[in-house]
Write a structure and sequence with these properties.
Elements lengths: L4 H7 L7 E2 L2 H5 L15 E3 L4 H14 L3 E4 L16 E4 L6 E5 L4 E4 L5 H8 L4 E2 L12 H7 L6 H4 L6 E8 L4 E5 L10 H5 L7 E9 L1 E2 L3 E9 L2 H13 L6 E6 H11 L9 E9 L1 H17 L4 E4 L3 H12 L1 H4 L6 E4 L9 H15 L3 E6 L4 E8 L6 H18 L18 H4 L2 H14 L19 E2 L2 E2 L1 H4 L7
Parallel strand pairs: 2-4, 3-4
Antiparallel strand pairs: 1-2, 5-6, 6-10, 7-11, 8-9, 8-10, 12-14, 12-15, 13-14, 13-17, 16-18, 17-18, 19-20
């Protein structure tokens, strides 16, 4: 089949075989981690160098051709959903660590580098890269930058934005910019801080300078089981109120525990509605003092069982169960939505009571996994897409959860981004003027609206309308066009 004139010119920018246009080739790119949304692009470009990426973006700008940058496709908000009349620029082959400086503690990486590989490369020098999303074994640094990813240990170490020192990027206009560098001491506007979390609306990062941290000398990891989620939430409040700053505080509910046990044979205390994971880290002397206080707090919180990890192997087993939770839920349901709202820590118990009550009321199962330390909820809403109305009910529950988060003074996203799925809730959190300000900032980087268009911002005049059809909530009559 012959290519259209525009794709013929696009193909000329790459060596033969690196512009994918066949139906079977495009099928893998139709959706990301949010499989409820699907769209087939015109083509997928596979660059292997930064110069090729720049050439592709400049071509798109000249032709007003929409493009979506994509790494491993692990976005859970539809952030890398293709554009029907646009192309996907996949960055997986830009996967080199260009420089690693152990003395100054930084690494310069390409956007297709896998998150966990940065720590693997830094480990011989006693260093690591702190942000650790659950998908860190497959997600890319470019995607982490786009969505400002966090992870279990962001409570102590912060998000991706706290670890990006410099960025070289090609903006949607084709302009190549360089911001920041190897030092935190910068003069002028924080362009790196603005770029991180832009959800692909500004352009594509070509090189990212990452801060590396010394590996902790010592860990103390405790797994505690509770009869109720509220008890686990109260334990979190007590830990934070004590002044301790653990590296991570995580909670999993009974349904998530069931999935993790089946998937990776993780062992949890029987008869528990919730499990709390708390990890201290730092110098050996500091952890020795803090663990005494932590063990006292947990003992006073009334757990069914509290089990400290006795060695590195047991610690890794605890984290394997937690980090497998998202994928493990696939054993319980053929489809699921992962939400990403945030509530104040003090209202965790209240939020979970609402979620459980709505789950029962709507007949939709929901497994709860969350970063309890910073109130970042990750309800995994289960449904079977083959059953008529199942997706609509799941989306309706997701919408109630997000509106609750905003009403409690929280956010519609902690680290997954807005993407396609949550854009209709942006007006619940921000005013018309605030959204207009965001749009004007995006337009300064992308005046032609070709970089990941249709993401983050509500569609004018029809908040629930998405490119490939009506949003499930509109189909269900739960939201309407204006």
């Amino acid at each position: 089949m012959s290519l259209s004139p525009i794709l013929t010119r696009l193909a000329a920018l790459l060596p033969a075989g690196r512009l994918l246009t066949g139906p079977a080739q495009l099928a893998s790119y139709e959706s990301d981690g949010l499989t409820a949304f699907q769209e087939r692009p015109l083509a997928v470009a596979v660059p292997e160098t930064a110069d090729e990426v720049v050439a592709l973006v400049r071509f798109c700008h000249a032709e007003r051709l929409p493009f979506v940058a994509r790494g491993s496709g692990t976005s859970l908000s539809g952030g890398s959903l293709p554009i029907k009349e646009g192309i996907v620029i996949t960055l997986n082959r830009l996967n080199r660590i260009l420089r690693l400086d152990p003395a100054q503690r930084f690494a310069v990486v390409q956007p297709g580098v896998i998150n966990a590989q940065v720590s693997v490369a830094a480990a011989p020098h006693g260093l690591h890269y702190a942000p650790d999303p659950s998908s860190q074994s497959i997600c890319t640094i470019g995607g982490n930058v786009a969505f400002n990813s966090g992870g279990a240990h962001c409570l102590k170490h912060g998000m991706t934005s706290n670890h990006v020192l410099g960025i070289k990027a090609v903006l949607a206009t084709g302009e190549v910019v360089e911001w920041g560098g190897a030092s935190r001491e910068q003069v002028g506007p924080d362009w790196c801080g603005l770029f991180v979390g832009n959800e692909g609306l500004f352009g594509i990062a070509l090189e990212i300078t990452l801060q590396l941290l010394p590996k902790s000398e010592c860990f103390h990891t405790v797994l505690a089981g509770y009869r109720t989620l509220e008890q686990a939430g109260d334990a979190v409040s007590a830990i934070v109120a004590s002044g301790l700053l653990p590296g991570a505080i995580e909670i999993m509910d009974a349904l998530a525990l069931e999935a993790a046990s089946a998937a990776v044979h993780a062992e949890y205390p029987p008869g528990c509605e919730a499990v709390l994971i708390v990890e201290l880290e730092g110098p050996r002397e500091t952890v020795a003092v803090e663990r005494v206080r932590l063990d006292e707090i947990i003992a006073a919180s009334g757990p069914v069982e509290a089990r400290p990890a006795r060695d590195a192997e047991e610690r890794l087993a605890i984290w394997k169960g937690r980090k497998s939770a998202f994928s493990a839920v696939g054993r319980l349901s053929p489809d699921f939505i992962v939400q990403d709202g945030v509530v104040p820590r003090r209202r965790l118990g209240e939020a979970l009571r609402h979620i459980n009550a709505w789950s029962r009321e709507m007949g939709v199962r929901c497994a709860n996994v969350f970063h309890a330390g910073d109130g970042n909820l990750h309800p995994l809403i289960l449904y079977d897409g083959r059953v008529p109305g199942a997706l609509e009910r799941a989306e309706a529950l997701a919408g109630r959860i997000l509106k609750m988060c905003v009403a409690m003074g929280g956010s519609i996203t902690g680290e997954h981004g807005v993407g396609v799925e949550k854009r209709q809730y942006l007006p619940d959190m921000f005013s018309v003027d605030e959204i207009d300000c965001m749009k004007r900032i995006a337009a300064a980087f992308d005046p032609c609206s070709i970089a990941n268009p249709g993401k983050m911002f509500p569609v004018a005049g029809a908040l629930a309308l998405v490119q490939h059809g009506l949003h499930p909530l509109e189909k269900a009559g739960l939201i309407s066009r204006e």
